[in-house]
Write a structure and sequence with these properties.
By secondary structure, the protein is of the alpha/beta class. It folds into two domains: about 5-220, P-loop containing nucleotide triphosphate hydrolases (Rossmann fold, 3-Layer(aba) Sandwich), CATH 3.40.50.300; about 225-285, 2-Layer Sandwich (Alpha-Beta Plaits). The protein is built from nine helices and 14 strands. The strands form three sheets. Strands 6-7-8-3-9-10 form a six-stranded mixed β-sheet. Strand 1 and strand 2 form a beta hairpin. Helix 2 (about 90-100) packs across helix 3. The chain starts with a strand and ends with a helix.
Length: about 300
């Protein structure tokens, strides 16, 4: 059983259906991408998972137990719109938020000190939040989200406002938390980040689940049997008669074969005829290309 099960969840606001009969399972211990264009229903769904609002229909289960008032202490949620109190001192603010999650003041202080040392920000304790840059505030928001070591971590655009160095820092911490067994929902518009970080995804559009599965399997599902060949010299005449040439330049060619198995046959023919092949690689579609295709299909109706 997964860490999170969403079963036929629907949420409406007046005449607008924000979430429309959505169902999916999130494997325990996974980094799970929750994707969709603006207005797709991602935030509405997250609000239901975090018990901020309730579903009008359907059920949500966390760790096999139907979602209830005890679960927020097991969830860490960092929304895209940050929510720090600008006039509070950083240390006091983190202590306050940690205690809201059920930690004692002593335990919270120990955990916060650990994160301050890890991020090398020990001198920030008495700074007011408003004195920090957007990127620095992002670090504090991240600490507040993970300090109570939740079972489920929900990160909405966690790299917003961070420079490349701090992006890699937070990325490393996400992977480290995941290695410790924390399940993570990663919501972003940056498809390249999803490909790099996530193992599974669900794509929401117009409040509906339109695609779900492992990233690798989804990319294989949408592939077009494209291959790029890099070679030395020239290609023998007629060797590419049974394939479609998509792009060609000196020493490189991109082709499309009718069936995947024909790529192996082509490689064997090239080698048999003395072509020096530097590389022969399949070109899989990016998640961005798949995203655009699936959202376009739904929007066409």
């Amino acid at each position: 059983m997964g860490i999170l099960q969403i079963e036929n969840v629907t949420k409406t606001y007046g005449k607008h259906t924000a979430v429309n009969n959505v169902s999916f399972d999130m494997p325990e211990g996974s980094i799970f991408g929750l994707l969709g264009p603006n207005g797709a229903g991602k935030t509405s769904l997250i609000r239901i998972i975090t018990t901020i609002t309730r579903a009008d229909q359907g059920s949500v289960y966390l760790g096999g137990e139907k979602l209830n008032s005890s679960h927020p202490s097991q969830i860490g949620y960092m929304p895209e719109e940050r929510g720090l109190y600008k006039k509070m001192k950083v240390g006091d603010h983190l202590l306050y938020l940690a205690q809201l999650k059920g930690m004692s003041k002593t335990e919270a202080k120990t955990k916060i000190d650990h994160w301050f040392e890890k991020f090398e920000i020990q001198d920030w304790w008495d700074k007011k939040v408003e004195e920090l840059s957007k990127g620095m505030q992002q670090k504090i928001q991240f600490i507040s989200t993970v300090v109570h070591e939740p079972k489920l971590l929900i990160l909405d655009e966690p790299f917003s406002g961070l420079d490349p160095i701090n992006t890699n820092l937070i990325k490393d911490e996400i992977h480290e938390l995941n290695r410790k067994g924390i399940s993570i929902i990663f919501s972003t518009h940056r498809m390249e980040q999803v490909e790099e970080i996530c193992e599974h995804i669900v794509l929401i559009n117009k409040g509906q689940n339109v695609l779900e599965g492992k990233v690798k399997e989804i990319k294989n599902q949408f592939k077009d049997n494209l291959f790029k060949i890099e070679y030395e010299g020239s290609l023998p005449a007629n060797i590419l008669d049974d394939v479609k040439i998509v792009k060609q330049s000196e020493g490189a060619i991109t082709i499309q074969v009718p069936e995947e198995k024909q790529s192996n046959q082509l490689l064997q023919r090239l080698l048999a005829q003395g072509v020096f092949v530097h590389s022969f690689n399949e070109i899989l579609p990016s998640l961005n290309e798949i995203f655009i295709k699936k959202v376009g299909e739904v929007n066409a109706f």
